[in-house]
Each structure stands twice: as C-alpha cells, then as structure tokens.
Amino acid sequence: MRISQLSARSGVAIPTIKYYLRESLLHQGVQLAATRAEYDESHLRRLRLIRALLEVGKLPVAAIKKVIEAVEDESLPVHDMLGTAHYALSTPVETGQGADWELARDQVEALLAAMDWHVDERAPSRAELAQTLVKLRELGLSTDVTAYARAADTLVVEQEMDTIPFDGPREAAVEAMVLGTVLYGKAFDALRRLAQESESARRLANRAT
User: Considering its fold, how many domains does the chain have in total?
Assistant: First the structure.
C-alpha cells in the first residue's frame, strides 16, 4: 500500500508517519522509486503499537524507541521484551533511606514471597510500592496490602494475561500488554471508587444527617 493508504487505514497523518520513519520508530517500506515506497500489514501493526505507547501509555519518544528496539530484537525473549515496555510504563521513584524505607522494602519482599510472585530485582514497581507503604505508615494508615495483592493477582491471571497473543507478532503482544496495563488499571480504580460509594451508602443509609 502507498503511504496515503497507510495513513487512511491507520488514522495516522502522513507527516507523522514520515516523522516516525525518520526517527526509526517505523521501519522503512520497500522502495519502488525515488519518491515511492510500498508498505504492508507490519507497518500497520507498528503504527498501532506506537499509538498505544504514545496515546495510552503516555511515553516519550525516547522510551518508545527503547520498546521498539526490544520488539525488533528477535533474540530477546518475549518475557524480557514485555518487561521493557512494562518498566517504561512505571513511575520513576527515588529510593529513600532510613528505617521506614528499610521496613517498607522488607514488607515488599515478604509480600512477593507470600504471593509466590517472581519479580526481577530491577522492577521499578518494587520501589513504587515501598514508597507507597512509607507514605501509608507516615499517615497512620494500615500498610497491609495483601487483599490488594490478591485482587491484582486475580485480575492479572484471569483477565489481563489472557488478552496477550504470545504466539503472534511481537508488536501485538506489547500493544496488548500496554493497553491492558493502562486501561484495566483505570477500570480497576474506577470500580474501587464505585464500590466505595456503594458501601458508604449501605453503611450510612440509616444514620441521621
């Protein structure tokens, strides 16, 4: 297909496609003439992935490049490829010091062990969770997040991971992981708020104003 057809089918403007080509986010088409190239379904899949990373994942171009490099590295196992995208979605956290941080990190390790979760030492979500536990403790709130871990385990095992086409194109697997992580995460947060409102109404229904 011509670049105009690629634009029409993908919903991405031609100038944007040309920018992705210049930045090596999108692989070059087959050159048929000096000003004409042919594109195929692999370019459509790549544009879908870029849009997912950019529009849903809110990743900067530099981070998207790292994910694309992982996708294109066929020697990289799928698990590691997905990890590259997953870590890119994480919020950077500066690891703190002191007794509270040590306690929080120990609690994270204990929780991972109890859940039998196999998580890389470099996973940024370790520090993110530890930071959250530190803040909960500072505010005098419970740091027992076991119930949330169980809910997350059920969500991931029964919903999110089943949507990832591990045996399909590498772009499709990363796209599904990114969309699932971000969108199911938003759905989970919205459902918690709905459940909180419902429970508040149930508990306070018979109380005087």
Answer: 1
